[in-house]
Amino acid sequence: MSPVRVLVAPDRYAALLTSPEAAQALAAGWSEGAGHDLVVARALTDGGPGFLDVLAAASVPGEGHTEPVLVHDPWGRPIPATVLVRERAGERTAYLEAAQVCGAQLWRPGDDLALATTAGLGELMGAAIDAGATRLVVGLGGACVPDAGLGVAAGLGGDPGVLGAGAAALAQLTAAELAPLEWARHRLRGIPVTALGELDRPLLGLLGVAATQIPDPALGQRIESALGHAVAVVRAELGEPADLLTGTPVRVDRLPGAAAGCGLGFGLRLLGAQILDGAAEGLVQVGLVAELAMADLVVTGTAVLGAECLRGSSVTALSVAAGEHGIPVVAVVGRVEAGRRETMAAGLSGTYAVAQTLAGWPAFAASPVPALARRAAAVARTWSPAGRD
To answer: What confidence score (pLDDT) does residue 388 get?
Structure first.
């Protein structure tokens, strides 16, 4: 008998479970249901909340360490943040999580989103550089400050100015006030910056950041107008890159990833950062590409498997990568909101919900770890009833 090698690699289950917690629950349940299998537990990340925790869990002992940093939240209040540092082959890479300094958990009653700035992320990047980082990797998921990432330059340059005063101030932005961009570029000179986020959403327009991520329509329109003005000033003053094939100018606000992290991608691109698909690059960052080569079966999961997840997520990125190796993928999720045709098209061989109906969701949410483990055990008995000859 040779054991079936099962790679358990789930995404986070919304606010119920982090991806490492979900991985442990699924692995425990699978081992109970199919004790003859060799189960390897890993966690998925797309660069969103929990990015550093997943990377730390995937690090070789002694390879990485965290460093605390004091920066400012979007409204100027001091907050603690963390930098994860890995040293490999003489390179010192600092990993940063934008959601720590630009996430919704920082909002307080009375905070005006139009005055919020991403300068804190610039401060965090600067602290990493001062600590000797030779490369920066920034997870953009979960950030929700709509200043088009222009505050990052202000934070890096140490001069808040108009760029660091939030979206409302950008409505009056002039070319003379873009100087912090050059200062920030100078500080980043020789230090590659890679950011992980969504690539296909637009920065402006009906599907843009303000229209889709600002709950108050009137405020959304105000921020949209301010961002549109700021983009126009940047385009006129800094020019635009040319398409490599046609030589025609390409609008910087329409480049892939410009809207990542609620628009952080736009500001980071102006500073020379490379924006990669968070879901796909997350597999690389945690070493799952190598693990897939040795797996016989992949078990993944997330809170809700629906259209948004299937459109592009860590779960679908993993299923695509597994499909390239001919490895079946099953998903054990909180709830399924997609049809069998859609899930199979995404590369999932089987989908299993803990909550079969909406009525069953509260029970799962009240005690997600044992519920997920029980469901995984049942699925394991279906998929791996006995050791393989």
So the answer is: 45
